[in-house]
């Protein structure tokens, strides 16, 4: 990300001008960049439950109501804003809890540019800021009946605190043993189509005549829980995830033969004859794609189940000595109710505006934004939060 000089939000009134500026007035904050002014706050067009965004095109003098994607922040008792790296605005909410105070409004990231092209409208996208990073999700694909579900169940059973399953949405009917919200979110096609339009999905595909999709929330919930996310999705879905901002490990599971695949599918006994035949027809194409598309980092052959499971564990670095992944400790930070932001390189200083606290370093918080990961439509991870005192101690190597 590019650099911007240090400034205080309310310093604009003193004539600050460096390609962008920030003003704060009556619950609205405006951030100007190039020939656009982003006005954040006030009423949201769609819902009074979230912070609104409008854009003023300075060259034409026209107001634009952009399509707003991503999870929107709830309104707060005011907020401050600062432009980061020319593609997103950091918004810090007054009087919010530590897990809800930092939000990013993406205005020109790769995701936003892509969505502008797809939707043909002006687009901005919200993303919630989260401290710490999650491990790369694991995408597992392979033809129906190859044993993906079986392998994933074994992994989740052996490492329950390490892995979490991304619960997909599907329009197919639930099987006898399947539970809504556990194996899938079973959903009507018309509702899923509407949610797809609303940008709630990271990827989706039509598989064996039904819609399947991974919601952004499904993956983020697992990461929020401090676990590594496993996605069981088809090859088309894997291709979409490859093209997305989600960095993942891609594994394709092959059957020992088509005959064995057919035997397993029939023995599972969950599909009608017609569905079995459809899955077998699709299996050939999927295996060809899996082997030739360059999407996958690893191939697994599920002949003997135990051997295949051992190979899966090895490529995930689980050599038998690893237990639960340590959850990163959540830092508790006391956020000043009313504050200003100062940007110094990749550090954002949050300072209280309450006169008696303004000068005290104990009341300053430093946000390190040098290692941000992810972003809209999911979370922006990697925010590093310090009190000013602990930050200064870190710089000088002093420990108390
Ligand atoms: N693209 C995509 N594919 C999915 C998703 N969820 C499941 N699938 C794939 O849909 C296909 C059918 O899944 P399912 O109906 O559970 O049948 P099964 O694979 O025979 O157990 C499999 O290839 C899954 O990997 C999803 O969210 N997105
Ligand atoms: N290596 C294997 N050898 C024999 N049967 C297997 C093996 N792996 C899985 N199975 C069985 O094959 C069937 C299909 O497996 P499943 O995990 O449901 O496949 P998928 O999720 O890929 O559709 C299940 O009945 C499962 O018990």
UniProtKB/TrEMBL annotation:
Question: Gene3D superfamilies from the xrefs?
Answer: Kelch-type beta propeller, P-loop containing nucleotide triphosphate hydrolases
**Record-linked SUPFAM superfamilies:** Galactose oxidase, central domain, P-loop containing nucleoside triphosphate hydrolases
UniProt KW keywords? ATP-binding, Kinase, Nucleotide-binding, Transferase
Q: What is its EC number?
A: 2.7.4.8
| Residue intervals of the Guanylate kinase-like domain | 135-317
Q: Which reaction does it catalyse?
A: GMP + ATP = GDP + ADP
Molecular function per GO: ATP binding; GMP kinase activity
Q: Per the record, GO CC terms?
A: cytosol
UniProt KW Manganese keyword? no
Task: Return the InterPro entries for the record.
Answer: Gal_Oxase/kelch_b-propeller, GK/Ca_channel_bsu, Guanylate_kin-like_dom, Guanylate_kinase, Guanylate_kinase_CS, Kelch-typ_b-propeller, P-loop_NTPase
- Similarity comment: family membership: Belongs to the guanylate kinase family.
Q: What is this protein called?
A: Guanylate kinase 1
Task: Give the species.
Answer: Malus domestica (Apple)
């Amino acid at each position: 990300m590019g650099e911007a000089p240090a400034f205080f939000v309310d310093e604009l009134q003193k004539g600050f001008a460096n390609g962008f500026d920030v003003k704060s007035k009556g619950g609205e904050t405006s951030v100007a960049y190039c020939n656009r002014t982003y006005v954040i706050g006030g009423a949201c067009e769609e819902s009074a439950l979230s912070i609104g965004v409008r854009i003023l095109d300075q060259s034409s003098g026209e107001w634009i109501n952009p399509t707003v994607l991503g999870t929107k922040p709830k309104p707060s008792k005011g907020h401050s804003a600062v432009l980061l790296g020319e593609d997103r605005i950091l918004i810090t909410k007054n009087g919010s809890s530590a897990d809800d105070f930092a939000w990013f409004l993406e205005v020109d990231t790769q995701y936003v540019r892509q969505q502008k092209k797809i939707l043909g409208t002006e687009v901005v996208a919200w993303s919630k800021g989260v401290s710490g990073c999650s491990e790369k999700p694991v995408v597992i694909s392979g033809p129906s009946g190859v044993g993906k579900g079986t392998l994933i169940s074994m992994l989740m059973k052996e490492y329950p605190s390490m892995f979490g399953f991304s619960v997909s949405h599907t329009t197919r009917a639930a099987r006898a043993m399947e539970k809504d919200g556990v194996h899938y979110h079973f959903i009507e096609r018309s509702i899923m189509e509407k949610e797809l339009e609303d940008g709630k999905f990271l990827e989706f595909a039509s598989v064996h005549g039904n819609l399947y999709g991974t919601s952004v929330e499904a993956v983020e919930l697992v990461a929020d829980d401090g676990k590594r996310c496993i996605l069981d999705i088809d090859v088309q879905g894997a291709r979409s995830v490859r093209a997305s901002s989600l960095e993942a490990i891609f594994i394709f599971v092959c059957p020992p033969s088509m005959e064995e695949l057919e035997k397993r599918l029939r023995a599972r006994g969950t599909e009608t004859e017609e569905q079995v035949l459809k899955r077998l027809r699709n299996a050939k194409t999927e295996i060809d794609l899996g082997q030739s598309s360059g999407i996958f980092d690893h191939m697994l052959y599920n002949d003997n189940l135990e051997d295949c499971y051992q190979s899966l564990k090895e490529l995930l670095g689980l050599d038998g000595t690893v237990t639960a992944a340590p959850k990163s400790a959540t830092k508790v930070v006391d956020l000043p109710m009313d504050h200003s932001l100062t940007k110094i390189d990749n550090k954002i200083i949050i300072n209280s505006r309450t006169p008696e606290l303004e000068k005290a370093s104990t009341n300053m918080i430093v946000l390190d934004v040098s290692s941000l990961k992810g972003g809209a439509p999911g979370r922006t991870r990697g925010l590093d939060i310090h009190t000013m005192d602990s930050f200064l101690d870190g710089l000088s190597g002093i420990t108390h």
